[in-house]
Amino acid sequence: MRNPALKTAYAIVVLTGVVYAFVSLEGPNGIPALLAKRSQVAEYEHQNQQILRENTQKEQRIERLENNPIEQEMEIRQRLKLAKPGEKIYILDDASSATNKK
Predict the structure, then answer these.
(1) What is the largest CA-CA distance in the chain?
(2) pLDDT in the model for residue 96
(3) What's the DSSP call for residue 86?
């Protein structure tokens, strides 16, 4: 009589373990959450690569501005809208502001 009772107890323990594993894997901290976290990490890595690329471009631009007086002059003239004697500056509206006026 002891043998069938022992088998039943083992079956209940195994069944309980299987149910617990299923609930754990399908719950809020289970496989769907793991997949969501992985996709979020991949997105953050992609954004990080973009930011690093932008930083490199900006550092190169700063270096060019520091070392190239012609480029410095062009940047200053462009930002401050300055002109040399005898030059004329034409300021055009952007296409976006032209469409807003309609």
Answers:
(1) 113
(2) 62
(3) T
**Between the CA of residue 8 and those of 16, 20, 38, what are the distances in Å?**
12, 18, 41
pLDDT of residue 100: 56
Domain boundaries, the chain: 2-100
Distances (CA, A) of 88 to 14, 69, 70, 76, 85: 87, 22, 19, 16, 9
Burial tier of 39 (Cβ tally within 10 Å: 0-12, 13-18, 19+): exposed
Token pair of 23, please? Answer: 């609930």
**Eight-class DSSP state of 27:** S
E strand segments, 1-63 = none
Neighbour-count burial for 2-34, b at 16+ CB within 10 Å, e otherwise: eeeeeeeeeeeeeeeeeeeeeeeeeeeeeeeee
pLDDT of 2 > 70? The answer is: no
